[in-house]
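**Backbone description:**
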Amino acid sequence: ATAAWATAAIGSAYYHLPPGCSPYPYYTYTYYNCGGAYYQPQYEGDTVVYVTVPDPATNPNPPPGQ
């Protein structure tokens, strides 16, 4: 199951993270690193979903307001 999480398509959304994910602070945001896959928490209404994103450190443009 871990390999499936690590190969998740960018933009995929999940209601839960796999076990063993660690917080990955970048600028003022906290992402989650799960075996090489990165997730950004976002709200869908009142529910938090975790969206697969590229490694934030490789983004040439920092998040807005930074």
